[in-house]
Design goal:
It is built from 15 helices and 19 strands. The chain is of the alpha/beta class and 456 residues long. The two termini are 49 Å apart. The structure holds zinc ion.
């Protein structure tokens, strides 16, 4: 009898062991490793492979899903859990990743292996890691069978890394029903960081607006031996020089003010005072110059910028060409329309005779922080990480959120995975990686935030 009892106890522990080995965290680690191994390097993308991978998981769970190819091989997939009448929530991820130069990696680029406690491979951070947290949350909600106060949509799209025209941009045009009745959305763009003992979660609420321009000049062509007073090339050079000598004046928009003020709390004394009062600090040219020099990323948050990236004149050294051009990657703060910026730029450099041509421009949009979703991020992260803080942030780059903000959907960049300052992440770089423990913790944390919003 005793032996049988002992046997039952042993069996019980073995059974528990088996159960334990199948926690959501374990599953998520496995999913992430497999997801990384799928080659969705863009170009060319081949995101249909990610669609197949996700479809297989949904099928095993009995979750209905839909797919659409925006072009051959450019797959998109979405699934919806039906809920109550509150405006729906989209969990948005892109399944493509950027190329990598194998030569500079210490492991195969699409490894997915775990080494020294980190999960390695292109996409571990951007953004198959966060994408897997979204997947795990979606699956867990489905398994729980609990009543939702709103629809929850899982959406994995193609092409974000190349602008999203075969992904979110295409879906908005061709599958608008996905976005109907949606009020809130979680995407990449934010993150948790540990500075000393304190943890800060940044929630991206807006981003600099790309305005890509070509300056185009026409003038008399001629022989290089007899220059005239002006040429197409001198006009371009003069316009660029004017731009160089007249940086756009700093100005502080609401979210940047909040962001700098929150950053000031953990900042070295040298910077803290100015960050806390950034609105007045920008009146000091010395501070502005020092910021630009030491922290170009933060300088980009206090003004419009134009990077000079491409130019072309003659194709022969002794020929003065009839036309010349230069291209500018301008990023403007999201408080004015692109056309107004272009007209201001024209006031500045128009005297040189160059024409400003618009290559591409997005519309500016800011997601307000006065929402249930933001409050959920704030309260749940504080509960899970006592003493942590949440702060709204502005991204200098852009994500697919600009598409959904244009639709009026409150879109936040939020990622609960905590990175220590200075920790190597390899986003768009070499040996991209995410700490396994931080990722595991993120599984439960992301689920807790979403639950707080979708369950009453
Ligand atoms: Zn990304």
């Amino acid at each position: 009898m005793k032996i049988i009892k002992a046997g039952i106890v042993i069996l019980f522990f073995i059974f528990c062991g088996v159960l334990k080995s199948q926690t959501l965290e374990d599953e998520a680690v496995g999913w992430l490793q497999n997801y990384i191994q799928i080659d969705t390097i863009n170009p060319p993308g081949n995101e249909y492979r990610a669609v197949d991978f996700l479809a297989e998981i949904f099928e095993a769970e009995g979750i209905e899903y839909q797919t659409a190819e925006s072009a051959p091989g450019r797959g998109n997939i979405w699934a919806r859990l039906e809920g109550g009448n509150e405006p729906g929530l989209i969990l948005l991820q892109h399944s493509d990743v950027v190329p990598a130069d194998e030569e500079f990696w210490t492991i195969p680029v699409l490894s997915g292996a775990i080494r020294d406690g980190v999960i390695l491979g292109r996409g571990a951070r951007d953004m198959k890691g966060l994408g897997t947290l979204q997947l795990a949350t979606f699956i867990a909600l489905h398994r729980s069978g609990v009543e939702l106060n709103r629809d929850v949509v899982f959406l994995a799209t193609a092409d974000e890394e190349a602008g999203g025209m075969f992904g979110v941009g295409w879906l908005i045009e061709n599958r608008p029903e996905i976005f109907e009745d949606i009020g809130i959305l979680l995407n990449e763009g934010g993150g948790g960081s540990r500075v000393g003992q304190s943890v800060v979660f940044s929630v991206e609420v807006t981003q600099k607006v790309p305005v890509w321009l070509r300056l185009y000049a026409i003038d008399q062509p001629g022989h290089g031996s007899s220059p005239r007073t002006t040429s197409s090339v001198t006009r371009i050079v003069q316009a660029l020089n004017t731009l160089l000598e007249n940086p756009f004046p700093p100005r502080i928009i609401g979210p940047v003010n909040e962001y700098f003020s929150a950053l000031s709390v953990d900042m070295e004394e040298e910077w803290a005072g100015s960050y806390a009062n950034i609105q007045s600090a920008i009146n000091d040219p010395n501070f502005v110059a020092k910021l630009h020099d030491a922290r170009p990323g933060h300088n980009s948050l206090i003004r419009d910028t134009c990077s000079m990236t491409r130019m072309s004149g003659s194709n022969k050294i002794n020929v003065i060409p009839p036309t010349a051009w230069a291209e500018l990657d301008c990023r403007i703060l999201p408080d004015k329309p692109a056309d107004q910026f272009i007209s201001e730029l024209d006031d500045l450099i128009g005297y040189t005779g160059v024409e400003i041509q618009k290559i591409m421009a997005f519309t500016p949009a800011i997601s307000e922080t006065n929402s249930r979703l933001y409050r959920a991020i704030d309260s749940v992260t504080q509960e899970l990480h006592p003493g942590s803080r949440v702060l709204p942030s502005v991204s200098t780059g852009f994500t697919d959120s600009h598409f959904t903000r244009d639709l009026g959907i409150i879109s936040y960049g939020f990622n609960p995975i905590i990175t220590s300052r200075g920790e190597h992440t390899g986003v768009h770089g070499n040996d991209e990686q995410v700490g396994e423990e931080a990722f595991r913790r993120g599984v439960g944390d992301f689920y807790a935030v979403v639950r707080n919003v979708v369950i009453d």
